[in-house]
């Protein structure tokens, strides 16, 4: 089974898939990420909170999802370190498991996935974790799921 090594997340490496949401460096500062939550014609915003049970590495990935119409934003509310696994699309639109990437994200950073980015669900590692999730929904195909050849994610 092929393997992916999870590494600490870096903004530049993650940029083709989305952006990292950093808290402001100093009291009184504000960081803006509104471009990731822009309205999508015919869709409505949905904000929900997920509680995620912890998982251990190595982890086997055999299914991914994407949201073709809108970005999906995850903000940790009460979380430990978490894992994100993403992959680009092949020309056919299918997930490209060969170019999959896995990153460890510290609990003070959020992530925003670009529309159409294949990804796994958020994987809590240290402990049970809660995330606020924001995206625009309302199309018949808001959520596209795809089975992929199993790949192991490890440290």
**Would you identify the regions where 5 or more consecutive residues have pLDDT less than 50?**
none
The largest sheet, given as strand count, sense and whether it forms a barrel, is: 5 strands, mixed
Number of helices: 1
Mean pLDDT: 96
Q: And the CATH topology?
A: Jelly Rolls
Count of structural domains: 1
- Strand proportion: over 45%
Based on the coordinates given, report the CATH architecture. Answer: Sandwich
Query: How many runs of DSSP E, i.e. beta strands?
Result: 13
| Helix coverage percent | under 10%
What's the CATH class label? Answer: Mainly Beta
Overview of this protein structure:
- There is one protein chain.
- The protein has a single domain, classed as Jelly Rolls.
- It is built from one helix and 13 strands; from the N terminus they run E-E-H-E-E-E-E-E-E-E-E-E-E-E.
- It has one helix spanning 11-14; strands spanning 3-5, 7-8, 18-21, 44-52, 59-66, 72-78, 82-87, 101-105, 110-113, 118-119, 123-124, 129-137, 144-154.
- It is globular and about 50 Å long.
- It starts with a strand and ends with a strand.
Concise summary:
With 155 residues, this protein is an all-beta fold.
Q: What labels would you give this structure?
A:
single chain; 155 residues; mainly beta; Jelly Rolls; 5-stranded mixed beta sheet; 3% helix
């Amino acid at each position: 089974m092929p393997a992916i090594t999870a590494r600490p997340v870096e903004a530049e490496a993650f940029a083709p898939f989305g952006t990292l949401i950093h808290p402001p460096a100093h009291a009184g500062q504000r960081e803006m990420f509104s471009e990731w939550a822009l309205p999508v014609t015919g869709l409505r915003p949905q904000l929900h909170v997920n509680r995620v049970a912890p998982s251990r590495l190595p982890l086997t990935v055999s299914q991914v999802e994407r949201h073709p119409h809108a970005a999906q934003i995850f903000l940790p509310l009460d979380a430990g370190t978490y894992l994100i696994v993403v992959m680009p699309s092949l020309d056919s639109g299918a997930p490209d498991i060969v170019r999959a990437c896995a990153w460890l994200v510290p609990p003070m950073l959020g992530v925003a996935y670009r529309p159409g980015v294949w990804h796994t669900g958020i994987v809590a590692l240290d402990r049970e974790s809660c995330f606020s999730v924001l995206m625009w929904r309302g199309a018949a195909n808001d959520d596209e799921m795809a089975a992929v050849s199993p790949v192991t994610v490890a440290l």
